[in-house]
Design a protein that fits this description.
4-stranded mixed β-sheet; Pyrimidine Nucleoside Phosphorylase, Chain A, domain 2; 49% helix
Length: 432
């Protein structure tokens, strides 16, 4: 039996590791017999030498089994989750989870915090006073049984190997490796006891994968591993060049999501959400065709069931929606107005996200406190015709100086063109 040092030397020299060797390594990561330095060496060797599909599959399974796993569904409902590779203004999960649950899907959504320039679903949910994202395994099981839905963070005993390894990857320049990324994402999904997974693969200037080829490469890796471990998966490749929906910022995004469920959503946000939920419904066998699934999602949206499910979830996890309204309603925004007649051009989503982050909408360091109000609500989208003086955005932050600085930065990002600007015909690039 090889020692950890021998395993690392083996991988450093380009030799593949066996499933048993990978499982023993992960066991050592969790029981601390493998040091942080050795975890870092493994990650770097994985980046320089690569991980085969067999190694990635073994790593995924070993990480998934490193802690507790949710019990299989007892409700008879399919258990399907969605994962996004990250975007700006991406509040899709906040609409998708209650929509899918209202359509008959159990949704055990384990989400993350902001990463890089992208916002985190947990940070958005925690802008609601009292809402808890820290649930025990038993609480997760109870909520699935009662409502078919929860939205929470990774618990201490759920996939602990991923939590340990990711902390090392974050400081060793090994985050973007496809094999490590695949294992990190899928291990958490396997631990949820899923019967299927839908992946929202963001592509564009504000996505982690800027080109369709990069997104396809990650999808290929994930597809091979999902096939190997027996988990059905669908991939939807969506645009991420400009903010999704109108709002960017934690409270502003969850408020937009709630209002969208009660009424209607901005076109691009609605299209992405409906397609992803329809894929979940079709994958779960609730509808025989994707077209029927899309119709079901639209009907559930219109009849108010998803809006009720949203508020039920908020209340069940301790959130006080009325307190949130009372807390944020008095906020006075800075209004950005059109400086000339014309058409709104492309607003670079990454630039917007970085500016909101600097205004307190995210963390620059782990110790930073988030301002849940910091952000912007756009009143117009790319291609909208405007007249001089029209309101084009509202800028918020609890700190007046940060709010004014953010408004100034955003004013310079919103270009007004003198000729008509066309919007992309579809947010969906392709589907697998």
């Amino acid at each position: 039996m090889k020692s950890t040092k021998e395993l690392l030397r083996h991988k450093r020299d380009g030799q593949p590791l066996t499933p048993d060797e990978i499982h023993r390594f992960i066991d050592g990561v969790v029981d601390a017999s493998v040091s942080s330095a050795q975890v870092g060496a493994f990650c770097m060797a994985a980046c320089t030498r690569g991980l085969s599909i067999q190694e990635t599959s073994a790593l995924t399974l070993a990480m998934a089994r490193s802690g507790t796993i949710l019990e299989p569904s007892r409700s008879g409902r399919p258990r399907i989750d969605k994962h996004s590779t990250g975007g700006v203004g991406d509040k899709v999960s906040l609409l998708l989870a209650p929509l899918a649950a209202a359509c008959g899907i159990d949704v055990p959504m384990i989400s993350g915090r902001g990463l890089g320039h992208t916002g985190g679903t947990l940070d958005k949910l925690e802008s609601v006073p009292g809402f808890t994202t820290q649930l025990t395994r038993d609480q997760m099981q109870t909520l699935l049984g009662e409502s078919g839905l929860f939205m929470a963070g990774q618990s201490h005993d759920l996939v602990p190997a991923d939590r340990i390894i990711y902390a090392v990857r974050d400081v060793t320049g090994t985050v973007e490796n496809i094999g490590l990324l695949t294992a990190s994402i899928l291990s958490k999904k396997l631990a949820e006891g899923l019967s299927g997974l839908v992946m929202d693969m963001k592509v564009g200037s504000a996505a982690f994968m800027e080109t369709l080829d990069q997104a396809r490469a990650l999808a290929e890796s994930m597809k091979h591993v999902c096939d190997a471990v027996g988990m059905p998966v669908r991939f939807v490749f969506t645009r991420m060049d400009e903010p999704l929906g109108y709002a960017v910022g934690n409270w502003l995004e969850i408020a937009e999501a709630e209002n969208a469920l009660a009424t209607t959503a901005e076109r691009s946000l609605a299209q992405v959400t409906i397609e992803l939920v329809a894929q979940m419904v079709h994958l779960g066998g609730i509808c025989n065709t994707l077209e029927d699934a899309r119709s079901l999602v639209v009907n559930v949206w219109k009849n108010g069931d998803a809006h009720q499910m949203f508020h039920r979830m908020i209340a069940q996890q301790g959130g006080r929606w009325s307190d949130a309204i009372e807390r944020y309603a008095p906020a006075e925004p800075v209004i950005i107005r059109a400086s000339q007649n014309g058409w709104i051009g492309t607003v670079d989503a990454r630039d917007v996200a970085v500016a909101v982050l600097a205004a307190g909408g995210g963390r620059l360091r782990e110790s930073d406190t988030i301002d849940p109000l910091a952000g912007v609500v756009f009143h117009v989208k790319r291609g909208t015709e405007v007249q001089t003086g029209d309101e084009i955005a509202s800028v918020y932050a609890q700190d007046r100086q940060r709010r004014d600085t953010l408004a100034t930065a955003l004013q310079g990002m919103i270009q007004i063109e003198t000729a008509p600007v066309e919007r992309e015909p579809s947010m969906i690039l392709e589907e697998w």
